[in-house]
Write a structure and sequence with these properties.
This protein is of the alpha+beta class. It is built from 30 helices and 33 strands. Strand 5 and strand 6 form a beta hairpin. The protein binds ligand ANZ and zinc ion (ZN). Ligand ANZ binds next to helix 6, strand 11 and strand 15. One of its GO terms (molecular function) is ATP binding.
Length: 927
């Protein structure tokens, strides 16, 4: 029989047993299960190391909680819609459904090979009609509640993917520019704001870089298109999404910060400018710097502003400009603009200001209009320079050295006001508040950078939007009874295959029965993943997307683990959905996730391991167990780590060690019944390890749990080599190892558990409990370690080749008493108690008096104490009897290490060693 652990065979066997015994299915009557969830995978075809790390983390935690006695909900499903399937289908001459189904089969098999413990009875697949019908149903509920808008919008269009993209799906890339410099566009400038806190772009003012906006998926530069689009009005929740971040204490700060920046809350004010001959009467601008209002020299509105539209009707130049901007990519807009015939009235000075339509003013930021303050704002300064507008300084730098000419650029900091009427000579901060309070034309206001969520996609492989367009009735929602609107068969065509399906496109209006056109846009796949965690609660429910009672009981998700790249898209949408569903009375929670863990990246040669870089290690290459154990023991889940064969070896060796120990125990037996001192030491080590590992699992520090386990294995091995081990003590240690490693390496745990005749399956076993109160353990261990170190020191310095007998002598009882008194005094006064009075106090103590120690001895000891700087530790000194017991049970370590007899005893009355021994520091004599 071999002691080698044959992982393939072992894995298969236990996977079979787990399935046979149905160990991962959530109990029928579970009241409030611990919900552990990993972000479900996109069905790309194969499992990569990022997935494995993600799911190894949730699996370990889920298993740990299960052993702790929790009902655990740990489900798995498939994020199965999306463009790549369509592209793959195109390339491989198949259809997205067949392709996706094949991917799912393969990936599920891979997950099973890894031995992850999912409740597969809850598997969900978003491209199945029984899932996506609920997307449609929810779309309708959101629509009815006013959270859906259909409007013409100038949107991001990826020419390669042939679809629109949400704002969050457009990435900004830096491109070198040869001749132009500092030609920042309005859009780039506004995004600069969004990111300024992460300082990706901030600070490269005037460099020869420009920003290109590209598709997040294929990196093709995006265009602008004007299209009728569907939006979820996530901006309705901007304030709540922002404010609630504060309370998400279980979320990483980094993720919260990214969301905060993305939502982009800005405090400022609204300022009203009367505009002559405008049917709207006046234009509101949003400003964060109301104190600069006296420096406003023009008013500018975005090309989409009502005023611009109105002027365009009569003014050809305006009309032409508005049209050009509409077709331009935001990065091309720059600081062009047209002056209009309109005139605005400055609300405080009554001065007449020119009105411009300018592309750098963004339609959906603030009010879509600005007051131009060229002296103190970068963009306004550039615009004014280009259009020869006056630059009026109203803030003077408070220190003269900052005073530069306005030709050189705006002064954007705070300072002292000038040319500002009654506010002259006051500081910016003061005026900022006062001017708003003192003038009706200015009112406090908060705006958010967040935009509505554009959810329509001109692609096939997604949830059809349940709408028909009727010539007479406009857009009409498909009645609930007719859901799902099923995807017709795929046809190979350029553009959207749904457009090519006459039978799909032609519909009857549900309201009037007249001819209608079915909506051919499908939903962004992020809609699918915004609520899938709810579907897992009741995956087969047929009359609702989820069971609201269960949701009330089981939510929020206790622990959610996934990649950090989802900080804004998925994780923000999920929060939005939860809040909207709460307002639809479908949920009683307003946040979906309690603990969020962003897992770090697996690196290979310093680079992210990814198929596009060609540096992948296939998860199965080293066997499930080694891979799982390695990804968990390599680093804290939130840290990146480097994949190296050498480190993988460590994980492999640990398995062999544990397996070898269990096997040898069973096969060789040879244990002892009589219980000795050093068995107590081992028993205590086992308890300590259980306590430590438990704490590490609780804190998600699997790597430290692995180290503790390894350490116990080492001690147990030494114990066994030292002497025949005590049968029960040793077996308890080995069983503990099997149980403690089981969440991370379940096959190995099961195999060892089984060899040791543990009760039932380890996956269903109770988590081991430490037997003792471990409060004092740390002090205890420290005593053992420092004593061993002292012995080593003496052996070394005295160059004792072959010690025969090592004597450890515990200090006399009165010294412990002195320490206790000294500690009390240090506590009471914290003042410099002179040693004389300490001696008196000690001698007056009854306990000491009884011992009949002479005054001089005490005085010497006390004087010695006074010179030490670790007096604060005195109160932690163990009792004399405890110290004796600890040294007795650990003396085998001395014997083992130095191959000498170890003798532990208390100091006798006329013991020459008694003088040297101190509490916590036994005297040592070596012969
Ligand atoms: C007047 C002003 C004076 C402003 C000043 C700034 C400095 P930041 O500053 O980037 O955080 N703004 C408002 N709505 C806008 C829109 N739709 N498109 C483009 N710009 C817009 O953003 C706040 C400032 O952005 C606002 O404060 C406004 O310019 C501009 F010395 O108002 B400010
Ligand atoms: Zn109709």
């Amino acid at each position: 029989m071999t002691k080698h652990y044959d992982h393939a065979q072992v894995q298969e066997f236990w996977q079979y047993v787990w399935e046979r015994d149905d160990v991962y299915t959530l109990a029928e009557n579970a009241e409030d299960p611990t919900y552990v969830l990993g972000m479900f995978p996109y069905t790309s075809g194969t499992l990569h190391m990022g997935h494995v790390r993600n799911y190894a983390i949730t699996d370990a935690y889920a298993r740990y909680r299960r052993m702790q006695g929790d009902d655990v909900l740990h489900p798995m499903g498939w994020d199965a819609f999306g463009l790549p399937a369509e592209n793959a289908a195109f390339e491989r001459k198949t259809d997205p459904r067949s392709w996706t189904e094949a991917c799912i089969r393969r990936m599920r098999e891979e997950l099973e090979t890894m031995g992850f413990g999912y409740d597969w009875s809850r598997e969900i697949t978003t491209c199945e009609p029984d899932y996506y019908r609920w997307n449609q149903w929810l779309f309708k509920r959101l629509y009815e509640a006013g959270f859906v808008e259909y409007e013409a919008a100038s949107v991001n269009w990826c020419p390669d993917c042939e679809t629109v993209l949400a704002e969050a799906q457009v990435e900004e890339h830096e491109v070198e520019r040869s001749e132009t410099s500092g030609r920042a566009s309005g859009e780039a400038a506004s995004r600069e704001h969004q990111r300024s806190e992460t300082s990706e772009i901030a600070g490269d003012e005037g460099s020869s870089h420009d920003h290109e906006r590209v598709c997040w998926r294929c990196e093709t530069p995006v265009d602008r298109r004007e299209l009728d689009q569907w939006f979820f009005t996530i901006t309705d929740y901007a304030e709540e999404l922002h404010d609630d971040l504060e309370d998400l204490e279980g979320w990483p700060d980094g993720v919260r910060e990214i969301q905060r920046n993305w939502i982009g809350r800005q405090e400022g004010c609204r300022i009203t400018f009367e505009v002559d001959d405008y049917t709207g009467g006046s234009v509101d601008v949003f400003s964060t710097r109301p104190e600069t209002v006296y420096g406003a020299t023009y008013l500018a509105v975005s090309p989409g502003h009502d005023l611009a539209r109105e002027l365009a009707e009569t003014d050809d130049a305006v009309a032409e400009y508005v049209d050009t901007v509409r077709e331009q990519d935001p990065s091309e807009v720059g600081f062009a603009g047209v002056e209009t015939d309109a005139t605005a009235i400055h609300p405080l000075t009554d001065e007449e200001l020119p009105v411009y339509v300018a592309g750098y003013v963004l339609e959906d930021v603030g009010t879509g209009a600005v007051m131009g303050v060229p002296a103190h704002n970068e963009r306004d300064h550039t615009f004014a320079a280009e259009h020869d507008l006056p630059i009026e300084r109203v803030v003077l730098p408070s220190t003269p050295d900052k005073r530069t000419s306005l030709e050189d650029g705006p002064y954007t900091d705070d300072g002292i006001l000038e040319h500002s009427g009654e506010y002259d000579g006051l500081e910016s901060e003061v005026v900022r508040e006062r001017v708003v309070a003192e003038h009706d034309a200015l009112t406090e206001d908060v705006t958010y950078r967040l935009r509505d969520w554009l959810i329509s996609r001109q692609r096939y492989w997604g949830t059809p939007i349940p709408v028909v367009h009727c010539e007479d009735c406009g857009h009409v929602l498909v009645p609930d009874e007719e859901l799902p609107v099923e995807l017709p068969e795929f046809v190979r065509t350029t553009g959207n295959p749904l457009e090519a399906h006459d039978s799909f496109r032609k519909a009857e209006c549900p309201d009037c029965g007249g001819p209608a056109r079915r909506e051919t846009d499908t939903m962004d796949t992020f809609v699918d993943s915004s609520w899938y965690f709810l579907r897992f609660l009741s995956p087969h429910l047929e009359d609702a997307p989820f069971d609201t009672d269960l949701a009330d009981e089981w939510l929020p998700v206790d622990v959610y683990v996934g990649g950090e790249e989802h900080a804004i898209l998925h994780l923000l949408y999920t929060r939005f959905f939860t809040k909207a569903l709460a307002d639809l009375d479908l949920l009683d929670r307003r946040e979906p996730i309690t603990e969020l863990k962003s897992q770090g990246t697996v690196l290979y040669d310093g680079e992210k391991m990814s198929s596009s870089k060609g540096n992948v290690v296939a998860p199965q290459e080293y066997g499930a167990e080694t891979t799982r154990l390695f990804v968990l023991s390599a680093a804290h889940p939130e840290q990146d780590f480097e994949w190296t064969a050498n480190n993988v070896r460590g994980a492999y060796d640990l398995q062999q060690t544990l397996y070898g120990m269990a096997t040898a125990f069973v096969e060789e037996g040879d244990t002892r019944v009589e219980r000795l001192d050093h068995d107590e030491y081992i028993a205590r080590e086992i308890d300590r390890t259980i306590a430590a590992v438990t704490e590490e699992y609780d804190r998600f520090r699997f790597h430290r749990a692995a180290t503790e386990i390894q350490e116990l294995a080492r001690v147990l091995r030494r114990y066994r080599e030292y002497d025949r081990p005590h049968g029960e003590v040793y077996r308890r240690g080995l069983l503990a190892l099997a149980a403690l490693i089981a969440p991370m390496a379940p096959h190995l745990g099961e195999e060892c558990w089984n060899k040791l005749r543990g009760d039932g399956l380890v996956v269903e076993a109770d988590w081991p409990e430490p037997a003792d109160d471990l409060e004092e353990y740390r002090r205890e261990r420290q005593l053992v370690e420092t004593t061993l170190a002292d012995v080593r020191d003496i052996v070394d310095t005295a160059a004792i080749d072959d010690p025969e007998r090592i004597e450890l002598v515990v200090a006399p009882a009165w010294k412990y008493e002195v320490l206790r008194i000294a500690a009390d005094r240090a506590d009471d006064e914290r003042a410099d108690g002179d040693s004389g009075s300490l001696v008196d106090q000690v001698l007056e103590t009854d306990a000491v008096a009884e011992l009949e120690v002479d005054r001089e001895t005490v005085a010497t000891f006390v004087a010695d104490l006074a010179g030490r700087d670790d007096r604060a530790d005195f109160e932690y000194v163990l009792a004399a009897a405890d110290e004796l017991a600890i040294l007795e049970r650990s003396s085998w370590l001395v014997t083992d290490e130095f191959d000498a007899d170890a003798v532990v005893r208390s100091a006798g009355d006329d013991d020459e060693l008694a003088g040297r021994a101190r509490p916590g520091k036994p005297a040592i004599r070596i012969r």
